[in-house]
Amino acid sequence: MLETILLVILSLANRMFKPCVIIPVYNHPEKIKSVIDRISRDGFPTIIVDDGCLEPCKGIVAELAATEPNILLLRFDVNRGKGAAVCDGLRAALDQGYTHALQVDADGQHDLGDIRKFMDIAEQHPASVVTGVRIAKNAPRGRRLGRKLTDVWVWINTLSFSIKDSMCGYRLYPLSSTVALIDKVKICERMDFDTDILVRLCWENLDIRQIKTRVIYDDNISSHFDILNDNVRISRMHAKLFFGMLMRLPLLLMRWRRPAN
Fold first, then answer.
1. Domain total of the chain
2. What gap in Å lies between CA 21 and CA 171, rounded to an integer?
């Protein structure tokens, strides 16, 4: 009898926390295999979203999905943007029965040794978003400046200083609440995605927990950031979020009284 009760409790606990990893991929053939290999060591199932990859990256992700039993491949013929790819991955993860999804970049910049830290915090706080705060002393000056400007706008648009790094793409989402949001509101689909969804999750009153994580900047890691077009998109996003903040102003003034995590 006691054994049966313990099995039921264990089964319920497993249902409460069933995580996976989501990797949006667009032409990182030199890095994607090593990223997958590192994640596989921790035993987490992975959803790769091929966002219109060209060869040889297209073939590499197809081979990985064919040979690794823990990989689900979503494939799109046209590149639609990081945000669109992540949103499709989040919906697929929920459909597959997962409760949480860790977003990881395909370019090898994230310290994958921290995956367990994200998972442990999420298991202890299953309703929370767990997001990285980048430690990157060698980051290019332009990126550091852009991050600081975005941080200021995020503080304004959330009426809070609690979010330390809204542009970090190393992040774990509780799937039910996150998918409910992306099905309700159109989220930005390109490099403006990470900030947009995090501010909106704040507006939804989700708890946000943050951990420091190392980011690797390397001349051999190519960037898909379009300096002109993506900066225009990010500026447009901040303006849209500002007017959204004004509409929520009374609620936000009452709400943001809790200490940062």
1. 1
2. 10
